[in-house]
Amino acid sequence: MTEVSRQLDGKINFTIGTVTEDEALGEMPVQAGIQNPFGTIHAGALVWFADVIATNLVLGGKPVTEGMDSFPVAVTLNAQLLANCREGLVTARATWVKRGRRVSTVRTLVSSPDGKVLMDLTSTHISAR
User: For residue 117, what pLDDT is reported?
Assistant: First the structure.
């Protein structure tokens, strides 16, 4: 067995756009820091992007601060990677599946610049209220 030690660097840069009572929107440029060796977006970058947009829906657009009391922790993430892309600006749209007082479920679709769904992520969040 060969032991391999590597340090990997990456940078995810995205924008959280509009957050309303019913949806949260975000945009992420395809960039070198999130691409895999094939030149497409690494699945983990898509999951992180979708999860942050979903979390912002649950927060209602409230800013995240260190030590905040009611951060909605994701307890399940179910991601379906359906397609991928190499360039452009991908978008995420998070909407409610079930909105509860303590437990909420959100569906987030990440789409390519031409509107093709790249990832369908369903996440369940628990709020400490």
Answer: 98
